[in-house]
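Quick start: what a row looks like.
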Amino acid sequence: MIVAVIPARFGSTRFPGKPLVSICGLPMIQHVYERVAQAPGVDRVVVATDDDRILEVVRGFGGDVLLTSPCCPSGTDRVAEVAKVLDARAFINVQGDEPLIHPQAVSLVAQALKEGEEMVTLKTPIESQEELKSPHVVKVVTDGEGYALYFSRAPIPYPRGGWGNVDLKGYFKHVGVYGYTRETLLNLASWPPSFLETLEGLEQLRALERGIKIRVLETGYRAIGVDVPQDVARVEAILKGEER
């Protein structure tokens, strides 16, 4: 069984109560849940939350939800709490603030897990110099078989001739959907933060430093999250465009 877990924390610093914000008349967490539930290859979808208000809202729309510790330092740790109580072979971590998540993107991860990968994530082409150079956009480089060599906030790979006429073909940004076998997920959550992870602020580097092979699959999905209240109007406009 493959379980998709959506971590949903109430106490966001920049946007408290974010999972419950109304987007086109529905709470954001419901948009995420319903899209993930459409992904072929996913056997169960669970919201993992630290708050009774989110718990009740998810139950209200008929969703599956588990209450987890408020002390989880990251979404990965919250997903690992679910893995400790659910008997499944693999888990997919889908961020709860992406109401436009494509079911096909989640399905890509599920399929790779079924084919035996121990950890899987996604990438999408970088489309501008601004994206390439922004520290807020995480870049990824892979080997010839599609496994991650490194993730960084820096623009990688560096073009020896400089940035003047760089061809963006071959540059990719990371899309933060993760799949793991149960054993790999529980190991990751039990290990302390690594040097590179702490330096870059990227927890997937903990896996690389421990020798875990991360399969990176290309997707057309370009993550559009809700980080601050101002993002809600942008997402609503996109959703209304989809409905036309």
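That is the whole record. The radius of gyration is 18 Å. The longest helix spans residues 231-243.
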